[in-house]
Amino acid sequence: MIKLSRLDGESFILNAELIKYVESRPDTFITLINNDRVVVTETPDEVLGRVIEYHRCKRLLPQEMTG
Asked: pTM for the full model?
């Protein structure tokens, strides 16, 4: 799970396993595997960093891998 913020500043937790792809349009749109979309204040690189850290915590990625 990763913590993100909606455009109105409200924080929420998203299951990173459900992310299909992330786009910059210029706001950051996260499309989930069920094709729902979420718009967040974080940049695509910030979302990617949080997803990588999430997977590291699960021990699916080695510590030396960088994004």
From this structure: 0.83
